[in-house]
Amino acid sequence: MKVLANDGISKSGIAALEKGGFEVITTKVAQEQVANYINENNVDVILVRSATKVRKDIIDACPGIKIIGRGGVGMDNIDVDYAKSKGIHVINTPASSSESVAELVFGHLFNGVRFLHDSNRNMPLEGDSNFDGLKKAYANGTELRGKTLGIVGIGRIGQATAKMALGLGMKVIAADSFIPEVDVKVEFFDGQSITTKVVSQSLESLFKEADFITLHVPAQNGYIIGEKELEIMKDGVGIVNCARGGVIDEVALVKALDSGKVAFAGLDVFENEPKPEMAILMHSKISLTPHIGAATGEAQDRIGTELASQIITLLS
């Protein structure tokens, strides 16, 4: 059987699939050619990440497809219910990238509270001529310890983020429509651990109370954070989005950054991927990454081997 990993797969995933008797194709096929390629090469399984879309047109055009797999969590680029109605298995790897995304959240938080993103832009330009000026410009940093982190969406990634926040000595609050409360277990290198309960509260109360806000939700029909929500937040709040583009109104965010209402933002995802707005890309108060939340070697190894395990179990 043939597996098309159109957005790539780790070497460990390929090895596991080949050991299970599958042929793995890692050729990158353009979106408009995916259906033809699948049919011409008798592909049984298509694996994607966030780039390739598997919509109704591909599902209808490829009757030989047995499994659609998503390396990662969100499956908004797959018509999941329609695929299942056609008898196709749809799989993903919800737990594999949680720590990687959570660490990136804190990368953006540390960037924001210590101006690292802007300092790294300006030190090469002015470090030798305006060292004291830059030192003064970046002197008013903030500690994360003792501050309140509001987590919107306390699923696997939200919980991984909560663990890191607790390890830093932060207070953690959460809002989640589907998870009323959760026990968060922080494990240490020597086998010891502590467990604390996080109880979900209203979005409005979270926005009012949090010093920093991080989003961990699937794609939405509308904004979770828009002009109205920004108005009720604390002055000087920091906002991080490593979830999905389109959950923050970027026009309202830029306005809030310019006014000082929002101290900084950290964005890994954007409304207009893969061409984010220039006003976002050039803003000195935004820490930027190009949708790399799950892009660590460790996460990709876990994703690849987990997908392989599920495929082998389903088709063997």
Automatic annotation (TrEMBL):
Domain of life: Bacteria
Keywords from the named record: NAD, Oxidoreductase
Keyword match Cytoplasm: no
Residues of the D-isomer specific 2-hydroxyacid dehydrogenase NAD-binding domain: 107-293
Transmembrane segments: none
Domain D-isomer specific 2-hydroxyacid dehydrogenase catalytic, first and last residues per copy: 6-315
Stated family: Belongs to the D-isomer specific 2-hydroxyacid dehydrogenase family.
PANTHER family (UniProt xref): D-ISOMER SPECIFIC 2-HYDROXYACID DEHYDROGENASE CATALYTIC DOMAIN-CONTAINING PROTEIN-RELATED, D-ISOMER SPECIFIC 2-HYDROXYACID DEHYDROGENASE FAMILY PROTEIN (AFU_ORTHOLOGUE AFUA_1G13630)
Protein's UniProt name: D-2-hydroxyacid dehydrogenase
